[in-house]
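[audit] Reproducing an earlier prediction to check determinism. Same input, same settings, fresh worker. If the tokens differ from the archived copy the diff job will pick it up downstream; this log only records the rerun itself.
[audit] input (66 residues):
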Amino acid sequence: MAGLKITSKKTPYARFVLGRERISKISAVEGIELSGAMKKRISDSDQKGLSAEARREAIIRAHRKD
């Protein structure tokens, strides 16, 4: 088909972020609770002002098997 131009279009979608309080409510319904170590890691990350990437690295380090 000469002259037919095909372009790809991304489907628009809304993005939103669930906060810690909302996630904990959803998790409670699912029966998921944070362990003491998880709560401490979150608290330490908050006090240190870690970035999202640094938080992910801390979680990975905590669960890495050497």
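[audit] rerun output stored. Observation attached for the diff report: Helices lie at 20-30, 36-48, 52-63.
[audit] end
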